[in-house]
Amino acid sequence: MTTVLELFSLNQIQSLHGESPAPLYHQLYSLLKGAILNGTIASGVQMPTEQQLAEAFDVSRITAKRAMDELAAEALVERRRGKGTHVIHEYKPKPVKAPLVGMLQDLESMGRQTHVKVLLCEKKAPPTHIRELMQVPEGEDVYHMIRVRSKDGEPFGYYTSWTQGLTSRITASQVKKKTRLELFREQGIHLTHVTQTISAVAADEELARELKTEVGAPLISLTRHSYSGTDPEVLVDYMQLYYHPDRFQYRMDLELEK
Question: Which helix (H) or strand (E) element contains residue 221?
Answer without folding.
Answer: strand 218-228
